[in-house]
From TrEMBL:
<dbReference type="GO" id="GO:0008137">
    <property type="term" value="F:NADH dehydrogenase (ubiquinone) activity"/>
</dbReference>
<dbReference type="GO" id="GO:0048038">
    <property type="term" value="F:quinone binding"/>
</dbReference>
<dbReference type="InterPro" id="IPR001268">
    <property type="entry name" value="NADH_UbQ_OxRdtase_30kDa_su"/>
</dbReference>
<keyword id="KW-0618">Plastoquinone</keyword>
<keyword id="KW-0813">Transport</keyword>
<dbReference type="Pfam" id="PF00329">
    <property type="entry name" value="Complex1_30kDa"/>
</dbReference>
<dbReference type="InterPro" id="IPR037232">
    <property type="entry name" value="NADH_quin_OxRdtase_su_C/D-like"/>
</dbReference>
<dbReference type="InterPro" id="IPR010218">
    <property type="entry name" value="NADH_DH_suC"/>
</dbReference>
<keyword id="KW-1278">Translocase</keyword>
<keyword id="KW-0560">Oxidoreductase</keyword>
<keyword id="KW-0150">Chloroplast</keyword>
<keyword id="KW-0793">Thylakoid</keyword>
<dbReference type="GO" id="GO:0009535">
    <property type="term" value="C:chloroplast thylakoid membrane"/>
</dbReference>
<keyword id="KW-0472">Membrane</keyword>
<keyword id="KW-0934">Plastid</keyword>
<dbReference type="GO" id="GO:0016655">
    <property type="term" value="F:oxidoreductase activity, acting on NAD(P)H, quinone or similar compound as acceptor"/>
</dbReference>
<dbReference type="InterPro" id="IPR020396">
    <property type="entry name" value="NADH_UbQ_OxRdtase_CS"/>
</dbReference>
């Protein structure tokens, strides 16, 4: 009887820590990391995207939950924003803002990393800025705004950084129409 209870508990634990995705007629098991398990425990809506080729956990977060999750990650020790980028998922689809966070501690050779993907709709792409948590997001969020058109709420200096202020559109969107004429300006 005791053995049966243990095997049932182990099975239930495995079910809780794995997602079964049905693709192409086969079942794939995607393990969840500690962050995904913690978010499930505290009933925060998210989607685990598994691990990348380097073993870094990747999560998809709703835009309205991003600022509170960012604070949680900072308090837990993710004190370094390694990079932030944005991309267009598909024509007519959504835009994604990707954050690579690192937990740097003294004496640790392999720091923990996590990748967070925040999606926004193309008709009103708004994501809370994390400038007030990680100052290194300043130029990176500005570049994402300039190239993809995601507006980062509460960013202190959100303006174009690469393109001229008079530029129309966002060059890295898949539905961007390239102008026929470019005016070349002399460098000063």
């Amino acid at each position: 009887m005791c053995r049966k209870r243990k095997s049932r508990a182990i099975f239930q634990t495995c079910i809780r820590t794995a997602k079964y995705l049905y693709k192409g007629g086969e079942i794939k098991i995607m393990q969840q990391g500690w962050l995904s398990n913690w978010l499930v425990k505290h009933e925060v809506v998210h989607r685990s995207l598994g691990f990348d080729h380097r073993g870094i956990e990747t999560l998809q977060i709703k835009a309205e939950d991003w600022d509170s999750i960012a604070v949680i990650l900072y308090v837990y020790g993710y004190n370094y924003l390694r990079s932030q980028c944005a991309y267009d998922v598909a024509p007519g689809g959504s835009l994604a803002s990707v954050y690579h966070l690192t937990r740097i501690q003294y004496g640790i050779d392999n720091p923990e990393e996590v990748c967070i993907k925040v999606f926004a709709q193309k008709d009103n792409p708004r994501i809370p800025s994390v400038f007030w948590i990680w100052r290194s997001s300043d130029f990176q969020e500005r570049e994402s705004f300039d190239m993809v058109g995601i507006s980062y709420d509460n960013h202190p200096r959100l303006k174009r950084i690469l393109m001229p202020e008079s530029w129309i559109g966002w060059p890295l969107r898949k539905d961007y129409i390239t102008p026929n004429f470019y005016e070349i300006q002399d460098a000063h």
